[in-house]
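Example record

The entry below shows one chain as it appears in the dataset: sequence first, then structure tokens.
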Amino acid sequence: MKLDVEIAAPLPSLSNAREHPFMRSARVALIHEMVAAALRAQPAQPHQLLGPGQVLVVRLYRLAPKALDDDNLASALKAARDAVAHWLAVDDRQHLRVRYFPYQGKRAAVKLEPTGRQRKARVYQTLRIEAFPVAVTPPLGANLVQLKLDAEKAALLLDAAESVSAQVRAAGSLEAALGDWLGIDTTEALNAVPPGA
């Protein structure tokens, strides 16, 4: 199942933003609320998107008149990423693979919002969220390490088998080699065993 959502949200560049911490907190809370409301309205529920042994690839698109570079884009979309992880109830470092895409276009809106006694204009950019599950495969390096360990174990077993074979050939029989290993005379021990026992 795939998720595809598009909303208008305030996604400014935060690298040079000089906003009060309370304003930043309010903006982040607004983005969380907007993304959560849009995700709740989707037919796909969190348990349907993410199965066992899967991670969710999340693509976040920011469409605005001015494109951002990659570090500013990541900071502008951080609140949206956290909102998606919160909706899924997962740790975004382990279960999400997030990719950011900037698009330059004319799709930004200006909305007047009441703030106390005056109305404040706020610019909204278009945020698009796509998400789809993929199966987790172990990294290639882990497979190579396991193969190397298996090859080393096989080499040790082969060396041990060749050593045993050489000792049996030198002793003349398996019983004599066993006697050498145990430090006993196997002919006496085998003769002491009653027949049919």
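Notes for this example: The helical segments are 21-40, 46-49, 70-76, 78-88, 92-95, 140-171, 174-182, 186-192. The beta strands are 3-9, 54-64, 96-104, 108-115, 118-135.
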